[in-house]
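Please describe our next protein:
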Amino acid sequence: ITSSSPPEGSRQLLMRSWTSMATRTVVVPSGGATLKFCSKVYSFESNDSARLLVNGNTVLTFTSASATNCNWQASLPAGLVTITFEADMSASSDYWYIDGLVVTKN
């Protein structure tokens, strides 16, 4: 993600302004799976952060120092799994872009 445009397709998940959250529940087959995605934080100050949670547990944290790339990934256990992207931002000009989400069976 090098701009406000999505790197793939015409849509992306955009978190902005204060506190944002998006949640999806998926059924992961036995053996587990891997979630891969692109992430870009924009205009984050030192007190801003964003998180990826799997079944309510934080597995990745994003800050102003986080790299912008499409190499982020997290392991997903087998079974019913809740994936949550959550951000705490301090201004209406803060953004977190998420795109290219892919779940691959292990």
User: Anything to note?
Assistant: Residues 53 and 59 are 6 Å apart (CA to CA). The mean pLDDT is 89. The chain has no helices and eight strands. The beta strands are 13-16, 19-28, 33-42, 49-54, 57-62, 69-76, 79-88, 95-105.
